[in-house]
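Task card 7
Instruction: Convert sequence to structure tokens.
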Amino acid sequence: MDYVLLITGSTGIAEATALLAGSGGYKVFIAGLDESQCHDLSARIAGSAYFVGDLRDPSAAEGAISACVVNFDRVDAVFNVAGVSGRQFGDAPVHECTVEGWDKTLEANTRPTFLMCRAAVRHWLEAGRGGTILNMASVLAFSPEPVHFPTHAYAASKGAVISMSRAMAAHYAAKGIRVNVIAPALVRTPMSARAQADPEIVEFIRQKQPLSGGILDAADVAQTALFLLSERSRNVTGQVLAVDGGWSVTG
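Output:
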């Protein structure tokens, strides 16, 4: 399959999507910050390649697109996964959230997404062709949980991703460029290690995400992500799809 997918990040949902895409015959290009993780993931996907850089840097985002084109002669879709939980920086309910927590969470979760979107769109416009972007949000952007996940900077960052994505979808649809958002609930990834180790949260999630019977597997999110990144969803743009095991409709 001559379809090139660029994924930012090398663990969790990014890893699961890259592996699924590779097994389905897609050309996979990985862009991330950790050299060893990118190398190890790429080694598990035949014919893949990777780029290492800090995607908060405009030159790194542009470099990732350029490197993908050098390796595969094209970029068909970009999945912006890379991001962080801001708790380590002081993200919390707004009256307790530190300025550092706010700034670092917003920067880590919105700046790379913006820069990768900009680099990809510029490339497609210059090439005179369309492309597909899928951005990563969270159910916390529109279905808050006040007790166990009161991380207000994180919610704000994911809300910003949704708003930007929908505005982009409207602006670039006439150019054949699609932009959608995937919004998972709690997924079993390295970023959710704290929640996975808390028995109270585990039991809460079992009730909150009844379809998955608890914490979602990254592979389940990857299935939906690959659909939105592929030509199978060629008439879908500007949509926010929750993959949440029922989170957003339970009490």
